[in-house]
Amino acid sequence: MDDQHNETIKQAPLLEARNLTKVYEDGVKALDNLQLKVHPGEIFAMLGGNGAGKTTTINIFLDFIQPTSGNAFINGVDVNKDPLEAKKNVAFVSENVQLYPNFTAIQNVDFFVRLGGKSNYKRNDYEAALLRVGLQREAFDKKLKDFSKGMRQKCGIAIAILKDAPAILLDEPTSGLDPKAGKEFTRLVGELRDEGKAILMSTHDIFRAKEIADHVGILNAGVLVAQKTYNELKGVNLENLYVEYMAGYMEEATGSLINSLAE
Amino acid sequence: MLSLLIQKELKNILLSPKFAATFLVCSVLILISIFIGINEYENAVRQFEANQQIAQQDIAQASSWGQVRNIAHREPTPMQIFVSGIHFDVGRLSGISSFDDVKLVRSPYSDETLFAIFRVIDFAFIVQIVLSLFAILFTYDAINGERENGTLKLAFANSVSRVNYLFAKFAGIWLGLIIPLLIPILIGLLLLLVFKVPVGADEWMSISGLIGLSVLYVTFFIGIGILVSALTRKSSLSFLLLLVIWIGSVLILPRMGVMAAGQIVPTESIAQLEAKQEAFQKARWDQYSAELSDIWRSREAEMEGMDENERRAYRDDKEWEWLEKDDVLRKKVQSDIIENNRTLMEESRNRKKVQEKLAFNIARLSPVSSFRLAAMNLAGTDIDLKNRYEQSMRIYKDDFTQFVEKKQEEDGGHGGFRISVDSESGVQLDFGRNDQTLDTSDMPRYSAPKTSLQTSIASSIPDFGLLGLFILLAFGGSFIAFLRYDMR
């Protein structure tokens, strides 16, 4: 992975956050000057607790919210300036993939893949993608309302695979999955990375992040408090590191608050 | 992209249980309403023809023209199958005589009061109540429901423009709702042909206009449903808001308009009007009696100083002259009363017209009123139906009265009957024409007032325009709301 990593950073990043800051209307600062880059063939795992800013980052990349300042780029296109062009280059899998309950798996995949701009696929291609993500053939023509969360997630990743975008955003994709499904999902994400996709993944799952990520960033209250590469993570107890950074940051933040109050 | 989104929306609707329910309910209701409407119409036509025949026979069998009691009947129209409007509330007939003013009485609802309680379900009612509710059912979660499901986020993770997405929503839902509306309508129109309902070119045009109007009305509710869905985050909230809007616009606003107009422009009730008419009538007859007393006193004065024989001879000499003078005076009283009644009626009608206009203008704040008024105008069962008939019956009444007077003159008198008292044969009543019927071949016949298609269309155009404006506002609002919609 070392050589591969060195190779990837020579290429332009497919996902880039440049000084991203987001302050919500209620005054909450969700992101504070976030900088990150995800190159082709790289997985960037954003770790952090609830409200750390992980989903806000992904929402900015998808143009669901506008940053207060800074820019998000997908394949070099500024999302804020040309969101439609930027989103041609990205696929998205959410924490809880929800599709149309009255459509079958194939109908759902067909709709979202064609919405993603790929209209040349045949049923065989959909079947191949669904088999690849581990969905049983019997489920292909069943309506989604009968699907478990794991099955829906598989459909979601199949859609992302078929969209064949150079960048992929994964928002807590393994949350709520059973260990077997989670492992299968991790394998698939690894395969996509190996195909050259740039993957930005938000997760709570430290162990899965360590297992597949090339970069791990620890977010706390919108600040990227630590960023480690795969090599830097070798032999490191990520759990301890995570707790240490979070605690350190909390201490610092608490200290600042106490100081400001004292002043 | 747009066609893909429209196809998805349409497919999503067609595969949903609510489409099946809507299609079933719409089909059953529309077909039953048209079928029952056709039966009602055919019954009304049979009754109309029978009543006309009976009236003709009664006239022919009268002993003299002075005894003729003519009746004019309101003619049923095939358009009442679709929009009953005020058809069931307005009287079916009016007596035509020189003594009484025209007044339509015996409305279908007064004959069959059970139906007056629950009213009929016609096509306009189904569109106004049922389809508007279905439009809300189809749209209340159009945007916020997709947000709640997470499909909105997944769709917009792609290169999809909001304008296209919203337009596809409108188009998909519109098609999904119009299909259940148009299919039973087309079958219903076939029923008209099967039952040989006399529908002419004008009626077909009116029916086409009515279908277009219904589509516009449903489109408005689709627009308002999507607007509220795009303004709210939760589908439960949008459903509640839309129900409030529906109740306000369908049930409250139109009635409020009428109530407000009643307060702003008060009008006399029929009872008050009749009391006024009767008061004038009484005063006028009292005046007549007083004048007659004066006249007789002056006649008595003329005979002062005469003995009994001279008096009798004088009276015999003057009798016809005096009778004619008295008759002129009496006729003057009658014409004054009729003229006063007409004037009072005219004033009342004019004031009512002002009240109606104000009521309609206030009620038109709701698109439901625009739909209802335009539908009634197109069908010819509008608020003016009663006035149109009564006016045409008044014109007929004048013609008929002139005709009867002419006939009486030709017959050499005013007809009626003669009482003779004789010491040999006692009291005898002579009706003159016991052995023959009247020749009614040249009697003027009443024909129903016809409203031209152009007039119907012209009177419904403002409401078409208003509905169009409401739709534009709802759609424009939806686009603005959705462009600012938080997809998360």
Description:
The complex is a heterodimer of chains A (263) and B (488). Chain A is of the alpha/beta class and 263 residues long. Chain A has helices at residues 2-10, 54-61, 83-87, 105-115, 123-132, 149-163, 179-194, 206-212, 230-233, 238-262; strands spanning 15-23, 29-38, 42-47, 69-74, 77-78, 90-93, 167-171, 198-203, 215-220, 223-229. By secondary structure, chain B is mainly alpha-helical. Helix content of chain B is 72%, strand content 4%. In chain B, the strands form 2 sheets. In chain B, strands 1-2 form a two-stranded antiparallel ribbon. In chain B, strands 3-4 form a two-stranded antiparallel ribbon. In chain B, α5 packs antiparallel against α10 (235-264), α8 runs antiparallel to α9 (201-231) and α9 packs antiparallel against α13 (367-379). The longest helix of chain B has 56 residues, at 308-363. The A-B interface holds A 59, 62-65, 84-85, 87-88, 90-92, 94, 96-103, 107, 111-112, 114-117, 156, 159, 163, 169 and B 1, 4-5, 8, 11-12, 15-16, 149-151, 153-161, 486-488.
